[in-house]
Amino acid sequence: MLAVERRNQIVEQLQLQPRVLVSELAVHYNVTEETIRRDLERLEQAGYVQRSYGGAVSCNSGKIELPNSLRRRKNAPAKTKMAQIVSALIQDGDHLLLDDSSTALYAAKSLAAKKKRLTVITNSIDILNVLAGVRGIQAISTGGTLEEDGCGLTGYRAEETVRNYYVDRAIISCKGLDIVRGFTNSTDPSTQIKKSMMECARQVILLADSSKLGHVAFVQIGTLQQVDILVTEADPGKAWREACKQYDVTCLYE
């Protein structure tokens, strides 16, 4: 196993339990305790963990991005449900903007399987790979600067490309969604391209699973009033339903 894979698994484990121990990790991965300590040191420098005596605890609070491989697997059943809802909204022949979120990636996979003719503009390397070679779907890359996690293209070149198009629908996601504070993200570069996508779309579809409702991340993307359709995987509750009605937002869930 590569060191990066081991470190990603450690971060993933800390999403499920409050603490990991150096001794247990060393036995599990069949490496020395010193190797695990170096792993934890690297993860602490990246902001994923906080080392403690004999181990580490997670310090992820929505302010940092999880590794891309973990984001793809997190809340997979919810993302699958939302992708199915989204695919039912899209018509053959639509022109779409998709952001670089793992949730949009699930939507892209569903669209690739069910739709016959689409044009998709995206800043996601993963989505471009999914759509590559799919008959009837034209995939357009925004270009731009590749983020450290190797998934999203950002920067002024990517934003400039997006602003050259006017599309039927923008499909974006977020790290947190609050009725008062709106929907938010953990980093500024990816936030700016999401904003550009919203400005260039006739309809904005926001994907947010229930774990994001009521949470606020670092950077505001927009307000609930700027959303046309909110897609989540389960009934968000009375307060959210009333807020969506107040702001003329269609709320869809299974």
Describe this structure in words.
There is one protein chain. The chain has 254 residues and is of the alpha/beta class. The protein has 10 helices and 15 strands. The chain has helices at 3-14, 22-29, 33-46, 68-73, 76-89, 102-114, 125-131, 156-162, 188-199, 238-246, and strands at 19-21, 49-52, 55-58, 95-98, 118-122, 137-141, 145-146, 153-154, 167-173, 176-178, 182-185, 201-207, 219-222, 229-231, 250-252. The strands form 4 sheets. A 7-stranded parallel β-sheet has the order 6-5-4-9-12-14-15, sandwiched between helices. The protein has a 3-stranded antiparallel β-sheet with strand order 1-3-2. A 3-stranded antiparallel β-sheet has the order 10-11-13, covered by helices on one side. The protein is globular.
